[in-house]
User: What shape does this take?
Amino acid sequence: MVFPEPHRVALEEFECDPLDRGSVRVRTEWSLISTGTEGIALHQLFAPGTHWADYVRYPFTPGYAAVGTITELGDGVEDLAVGERVAARVGHASEHVVPAALCTRVPDAIAADNACWFALAKIALMGQRAANYRIGDSVAIIGAGPVGQMSVRWAVAAGARHVVAIDGDAPRLEHASRGGATAVVDAALPEGHDAVVAACGGSRPRVVIDCTGHAGVLQHALPLAADRGRVVLLGDTGHPGEQRLTPDVITRGVQVHGAHDNHSMWTRRWDGDRALHELFFELVGEDASRSTVCTRTRSRLPIARRRTRCSVARRGPRRWVCCSTGLRRRDRVTA
Assistant: This one.
């Protein structure tokens, strides 16, 4: 997948990198489109001077969550084998050369289209660490898109007593309920404020996680949190200058914490997030109905097995997309 310029998506043939020592060659089976990140990048929905402006440079190659099969091993690779399925943080392309240390083996019992949620699950876990919610806690999650769905599941796994998902889309809320949410609120804030409080037993939630990536949500999230509560900005807006604090920060001691994908890399012995990905796969294996998200759109892309970057990025507030690769060799798509 390539974004040659804003608002345009194209397929491009490419030569895959040579196989280096310690690397593996992977043929992609499924790749998850992160509609939030990729929509922002595709439509240039970010302000100059933000980290988005540094991250998105056209031509831009999107994608960061793929599952595929190892077809070749580089010298020195001993813990993986040809034919094994692995998950890797790579873009939408039919083939990759990836350092073996950055690959995580996918258990045979987990389907590839479920496994490719591993990256968004890890990103949501960074929100859990910033929120530090505990057994018996009350957690409100604003936005039940892909990251919000995973946030629901981590809060449930952590033993939160109240887990409330807030979104205006009924199918999203159904997925959140299946993932263990104790209540759902089909309304935007601030209109849904009282319903959230009621769902938390009559008290404001101690933790509020904003998964939307919309700058205007912060000013409504802060009044929702309990006194000395915590608001976690997990959704990554392209316009942080438009986010507004409220008096709740001063008068009620509400804290604001940021969470980002790269926070796991700050550890001294970073393992490429393999342990976090393995944890997600363990949870999926234990209870697939709660640990995974039902993919709402699956697409087969007309791409070559080895030499074409797959590209279809359809952005919409209600669309989650997984792409399966490898049908035909010569087709090209421009959208």
